[in-house]
Amino acid sequence: MAIFLDAHLSSDVPLESMRDFLRKAVGGTRDEFGVRPLDLYCGDDGRVFYVLAAPDELAVRQHHAAAGVVCGRIRHIQLFSSTADELSDAHKALVRQMIIGELALPATMGGLGDSDTWLRQVG
Known about the structure:
30% of the residues lie in helices and 25% in strands. The chain contains three helices and five strands. Strands 4-1-3-2-5 form a five-stranded antiparallel sheet. It is globular.
Protein backbone atom coordinates (compact mmCIF):
# COMPACT_ATOMS: atom_id res chain seq x y z
CA MET A 1 0.00 0.00 0.00
CA ALA A 2 1.07 3.55 -0.67
CA ILE A 3 0.58 6.32 1.89
CA PHE A 4 -1.12 9.58 0.96
CA LEU A 5 -1.70 12.99 2.54
CA ASP A 6 -4.56 15.35 1.77
CA ALA A 7 -5.87 18.54 3.37
CA HIS A 8 -9.31 19.99 3.98
CA LEU A 9 -10.73 23.03 5.71
CA SER A 10 -12.19 21.80 8.98
CA SER A 11 -15.35 23.76 8.13
CA ASP A 12 -15.79 21.48 5.09
CA VAL A 13 -15.58 18.27 7.12
CA PRO A 14 -18.19 17.48 9.79
CA LEU A 15 -16.78 16.78 13.25
CA GLU A 16 -18.45 13.35 13.27
CA SER A 17 -16.61 12.52 10.05
CA MET A 18 -13.29 13.33 11.74
CA ARG A 19 -14.23 11.18 14.73
CA ASP A 20 -15.21 8.33 12.42
CA PHE A 21 -11.86 8.65 10.61
CA LEU A 22 -9.99 8.36 13.92
CA ARG A 23 -12.07 5.36 15.04
CA LYS A 24 -11.26 3.62 11.76
CA ALA A 25 -7.58 4.54 12.10
CA VAL A 26 -7.42 2.98 15.57
CA GLY A 27 -9.36 -0.08 14.42
CA GLY A 28 -7.35 -0.58 11.23
CA THR A 29 -10.54 -0.52 9.16
CA ARG A 30 -10.21 -0.59 5.38
CA ASP A 31 -13.09 0.59 3.14
CA GLU A 32 -14.43 -0.92 -0.10
CA PHE A 33 -11.76 0.98 -2.09
CA GLY A 34 -8.94 -0.47 0.00
CA VAL A 35 -8.34 2.83 1.83
CA ARG A 36 -7.24 2.67 5.46
CA PRO A 37 -7.19 5.80 7.64
CA LEU A 38 -3.87 6.17 9.48
CA ASP A 39 -3.59 9.56 11.16
CA LEU A 40 -5.03 13.05 11.40
CA TYR A 41 -3.30 16.38 11.98
CA CYS A 42 -4.96 19.71 12.72
CA GLY A 43 -3.48 23.13 11.99
CA ASP A 44 -4.23 26.28 13.96
CA ASP A 45 -5.68 27.88 10.84
CA GLY A 46 -8.54 25.40 10.44
CA ARG A 47 -6.86 22.94 8.11
CA VAL A 48 -7.20 19.21 8.72
CA PHE A 49 -4.63 16.84 7.21
CA TYR A 50 -5.57 13.22 6.63
CA VAL A 51 -3.00 10.45 6.24
CA LEU A 52 -4.27 7.33 4.49
CA ALA A 53 -2.94 4.04 3.15
CA ALA A 54 -4.41 3.18 -0.24
CA PRO A 55 -3.65 1.16 -3.35
CA ASP A 56 -3.39 4.36 -5.42
CA GLU A 57 -4.58 7.98 -5.73
CA LEU A 58 -7.77 6.92 -7.50
CA ALA A 59 -8.80 4.87 -4.46
CA VAL A 60 -8.27 7.94 -2.24
CA ARG A 61 -10.47 10.02 -4.56
CA GLN A 62 -13.15 7.30 -4.56
CA HIS A 63 -12.98 7.17 -0.76
CA HIS A 64 -13.62 10.92 -0.59
CA ALA A 65 -16.39 10.86 -3.19
CA ALA A 66 -18.21 8.09 -1.31
CA ALA A 67 -18.08 10.25 1.83
CA GLY A 68 -19.35 13.28 -0.10
CA VAL A 69 -16.15 15.22 0.57
CA VAL A 70 -14.41 17.25 -2.13
CA CYS A 71 -10.77 16.27 -2.41
CA GLY A 72 -8.32 18.60 -4.11
CA ARG A 73 -4.62 17.95 -3.89
CA ILE A 74 -3.41 14.52 -2.80
CA ARG A 75 0.25 13.98 -2.06
CA HIS A 76 2.01 10.62 -2.12
CA ILE A 77 4.30 10.09 0.87
CA GLN A 78 7.31 8.35 -0.61
CA LEU A 79 10.02 6.56 1.28
CA PHE A 80 12.54 4.30 -0.40
CA SER A 81 11.47 0.65 -0.38
CA SER A 82 8.31 1.39 1.60
CA THR A 83 5.11 -0.51 0.87
CA ALA A 84 3.70 -0.67 4.38
CA ASP A 85 0.28 0.56 5.36
CA GLU A 86 1.44 1.58 8.82
CA LEU A 87 3.10 4.87 9.74
CA SER A 88 6.70 4.35 10.74
CA ASP A 89 8.67 7.04 12.56
CA ALA A 90 10.23 7.94 9.20
CA HIS A 91 6.75 8.33 7.66
CA LYS A 92 5.61 10.54 10.55
CA ALA A 93 8.66 12.77 10.15
CA LEU A 94 8.06 13.04 6.40
CA VAL A 95 4.35 13.79 6.93
CA ARG A 96 5.25 16.64 9.27
CA GLN A 97 7.77 18.01 6.77
CA MET A 98 5.22 17.85 3.97
CA ILE A 99 2.59 19.62 6.06
CA ILE A 100 5.05 22.35 7.05
CA GLY A 101 5.91 22.67 3.34
CA GLU A 102 2.25 23.48 2.73
CA LEU A 103 2.75 26.62 4.85
CA ALA A 104 4.42 28.28 1.88
CA LEU A 105 1.31 27.89 -0.27
CA PRO A 106 -1.69 30.22 -0.11
CA ALA A 107 -4.73 28.60 1.50
CA THR A 108 -6.49 28.64 -1.87
CA MET A 109 -3.76 26.38 -3.29
CA GLY A 110 -4.23 23.77 -0.56
CA GLY A 111 -1.58 25.14 1.77
CA LEU A 112 -1.91 26.49 5.26
CA GLY A 113 -1.04 30.04 4.31
CA ASP A 114 0.33 31.31 7.63
CA SER A 115 3.90 30.43 8.57
CA ASP A 116 3.07 30.86 12.28
CA THR A 117 0.57 28.00 12.14
CA TRP A 118 1.38 25.06 14.37
CA LEU A 119 0.31 21.47 13.92
CA ARG A 120 -1.27 19.10 16.36
CA GLN A 121 -1.28 15.35 15.80
CA VAL A 122 -4.70 14.06 16.73
CA GLY A 123 -4.49 10.31 16.15
